[in-house]
Amino acid sequence: MKYLDEYRDGRIARALLGEIRRTATRPWVVMEVCGGQTHSILRHGIDRLLPPEVELVHGPGCPVCVTSLEMIDKAHAVAAQADVIFCSFGDMLRVPGSRGDLLSLKGRGADVRVVYAPLDCLRIARDNPDKRVVFFGIGFETTAPANALAIRRARLEGVANFSMLVSHVLVPPAITAILQSSQNRVQAFLGPGHVCAVMGYREYEPIAAAYGVPIVVTGFEPVDLLQGVLLAVRQLETGRHAVENQYARVLGRDGNAAAQRLIFEVFEVTDRKWRGVGAIPKSGYRLRHEYRAHDAERLFEVQDIQTHESDVCISGQVLKGVKRPTDCPAFGKECTPQRPLGATMVSAEGACAAYFSYGRRPAPEPAGLPAR
Amino acid sequence: MCLAIPGRVAELFDRKGLRMAKVDFAGVRRECCLEYVPEAVLGDYVLVHVGFALSVIDEEEARRTYRLFEEMGQLAELQADQPEP
Fold first, then answer.
1. Burial, A253: exposed, middle or buried (Cβ in 10 Å; 0-12, 13-18, 19+)?
2. Which of A26, A91, B20, B41 ranks highest by number of CB atoms within 10 Å?
3. What is the Cα–Cα distance from A113 to A118, expressed in whole angstroms?
4. CB nearest A249 (choices: B26, B35, B62)
5. Per-residue pLDDT for A367 more than 70?
6. Among A155, A167, A228, which Cα is nearest to A196's?
7. Is the CB of A145 less than 8 angstroms away from the CB of B61?
8. B73 in contact with A, Cβ within 8 Å
9. Which H helix or E strand runs over B78?
């Protein structure tokens, strides 16, 4: 496939790895923010191919993983109502809430449907005028234009029975929260290529300057990721800390102006709670007041949500890059993609799911210790 | 969630005032909304995410990067032929 195959060329990957090996003279910690990048890194074994000086840690760029437990439980409460058709991207259906996941709710008779694109929900709403159709609008900035358009079309076309449960999250505040943490070891970031295709990368410049960290906006194919790492390591070795664009074939500094205009017509910035991480100010989007007729959070009064997290799950620490999935005592044992304890094991972009699917296992216990 | 792949704009059409396209992904065609890439024309490659095109791929930029990679690749082959120091 054009614009994909070239970026999977093994010969070029080897050349980039050689260059990284020659460039890195001391240990560095680099974080890739986006879950899609995490998966690509693990799938292609990039973490194992890099020289020992370069340590990759995984960030919270998995919107399924960071959707707050309160929001998941709210989604349950809405989906359980008899006149509701609840629509969502596939991954969200298997995220454990306080009382099971949406898929098991579907098994008990709730009308829960997987959709590929938010616009599909408008068709479902028109086809089912006696039902209330609710779409679970999660995602980073990448998905916001699609969700904004669906809302705008609903209003334009008078689809009154369609609403959205919005839980968008934003990358720059997450990067700032990681850098402000006392446990932070991250010295450079691979920036999220598709988020930046929408938003551009101007917002990252003050972060790079204030914290002295290089941020290289990077794509998703193995060659992209290796070039991103090389550019980051070159900056670290020479004491620079600028925002660089590895993914120039897809995006420029200003991003997509048309998409941004629509996002801000429909959404406004709000504080958001990130599962496992905590509340981050101004880190999400919510629907503007003018669009309240399509705002499921306002339309559905859900009282007394009592959340209950797994005692064992360390998703939060994995999302901040402080622990690896293999550090978790439940990894691969009580917690697998078939029976996930936390969101990072569910999502196609979660670090735990990636580690499990691509065969990363904890180091075996030394001989002589009693079996558990 | 941030999975977006490049495809070629094969057909353009309008649906209820929305600019749409049939985008070709190595032979598989899917409908895609072009509202955010008004400049996209037939034959352009666009990056598609959840049924929406987010940007038009810059062919010249891609070529430039690829030339750089090619040089690195050829250099690596030359070095591979030489014995390790």
1. middle
2. A91
3. 12
4. B62
5. no
6. A228
7. no
8. yes
9. helix B59-81
Residues in chain A with CB shorter than 8 Å from the CB of B70 are 12
First to last CA, chain B: 45
Q: Tokens 């707050």 label which residue? A: A68
Chain B residues in contact with A258 by the CB 8 A cut-off are 35-38
Residue-by-residue DSSP string for A14-46: HHHHHHHHHH--S-EEEEEEEHHHHHHHHHTTH
Q: List chain B residues with CB under 8 Å of A18.
A: 76, 79
Confirm if A319 and A277 have CB atoms less than 8 A apart. Answer: yes
The pLDDT tens digits of the residues spanning A306-351 come to 777 888 899 888 988 889 999 999 999 999 998 888 888 988 789 9
CB contact under 8 A, B69 and A118: no
Q: Residue A104 carries which side chain, given as an amino acid letter?
A: S
Q: Which residue from B6, B49, B50 is facing A3, i.e. has the nearest CB?
A: B6
The ranges of chain B with pLDDT < 50 are: none
**pLDDT tens profile A179-236:** 998 889 999 999 999 999 999 999 999 999 999 999 999 999 999 999 999 999 999 9
| Closest-CA residue of chain A to B68 | A12
Q: How far apart are CA A142 and CA A212, in angstroms?
A: 26
Instruction: Determine whether the interchain pair B73/A250 forms a contact, defined as Cβ–Cβ distance below 8 Å.
Output: no
The two three-digit tokens of residue B22, written as one number:
């049939």
B47 reaches A (C-beta below 8 A): yes
A114, burial (CB in 10 Å: exposed 0-12, middle 13-18, buried 19+): middle
Mean pLDDT value of segment A32-60: 94
- Rounded to two decimals, the ipTM of the complex is 0.87
Chain B contact probe: residue of A3, A120, A195 with most B CBs at under 10 A: A3
* pTM for the structure as a whole: 0.91
